[in-house]
Amino acid sequence: MNRLYETENVSLAARAAVLSEALPYIRKFSGKTVVVKYGGNAMQSEDIKRAVISDIVLLSLVGVRAVVVHGGGPEISGVLSRMGKESRFVGGLRYTDGETMDVVQMVLAGKVGKDLCSLITEAGGKAVGLCGLDGAMITAVRRKEGEDCGLVGEIVRVDRELLDVALDAGYIPVVSTVAQGDDGVTAYNVNADTAAAEIAVSLGAEKLILLTDIRGLCRDPKDEETLIHSAELSEIPGLVKNGVVTGGMIPKVDCCVRAIRKGVGRVHILDGRIPHSILIEMLTNTGVGTMITP
After folding, report:
1. pLDDT at residue number 67
2. 247 burial type by CB count under 10 A (0-12 exposed, 13-18 middle, 19+ buried)
3. Are 110 and 155 in contact, with CB atoms under 8 Å apart?
4. Beta-ladder partners of 227
5. Which of 31, 64, 105, 106 registers the highest number of CB atoms within 10 A of its CB?
6. Which residue ranges in the chain fall short of pLDDT 50?
7. How far apart are CA 84 and CA 82, in angstroms?
8. What is the pLDDT of residues 133-171, one digit of tens each?
């Protein structure tokens, strides 16, 4: 009995220590804005998805103004495949013709966005689904650089009004990355990392968190034990030059750099497959990913 009592006391003490460690961070970030980009392969496990959502809801409940910007590439590819349409990528971007654009809008602003809202509600939070077309929140023009990608847009403006209304009312905005064409007619498919960065800039966010399917930036990309826990903005060009940042991580890191240069306080690259990676990174002394600072 005494051993059981001692074990329970140790467990309670450990929980109290965790809460005590988190308290200064909760005070620091309460009232601040955090933008979380969530999508792609990091969304494939239901258990991990629920852990991510519970982290975001907890942040909201302790006063953090949380915004979720999501992708949904695998879901879009799945619907196109069932339609008998092959997904085509140009320079890492999905080639988006008119039919594909309809699917992108339906999947992102429809199923994926609403599913995330439902999970947030189930976890005890309040969510509202938005997309860039709502109130012309995200405005874009057709991408001009590189090869033709069809209806893929470059963001020219983010209007924060709807986001502020939702945040001020205690809601977690869940944003689908479909943008209003600058001509007022065309809808554009925009990169979710870029959209999250631009939204973070427009809101003056304290943090931008990119959930990925890798541990973070590693000096040896094949060895997670070489994780870079923190990097200053001035170090990034050297990491690219030395091959630490390669392939699909280059555009992600470019988004991080732009966000910080435009005033976002910190950017975190986290492995979305690690349960509660957001809370560990934000509310503990340790952290589990890479933090990029000015």
Report:
1. 98
2. exposed
3. no
4. 218
5. 64
6. 1, 4-7, 9-10
7. 5
8. 999 999 999 988 878 899 999 999 999 999 999 999 999
Element spanning 28, H or E: helix 2-29
Q: What is the DSSP string of 214-261?
A: S-S-BSSTT-GGGB--EEEGGGHHHHHHTTSS-TTHHHHHHHHHHHHH
Whether residue 272 contacts residue 216, with contact meaning beta carbons closer than 8 Å, is answered with no
How many CB atoms are located within 10 Å of the residue 63 CB?
13
| Distance (Å, whole) CA 155 – CA 258 | 13
Separation CA 279–CA 288 (nearest Å):
10
Instruction: Tell me the pairing of strands 153-158 and 138-142.
Output: antiparallel
CB 110 within 8 A of CB 77: no
Token digits of residue 104:
């992108």
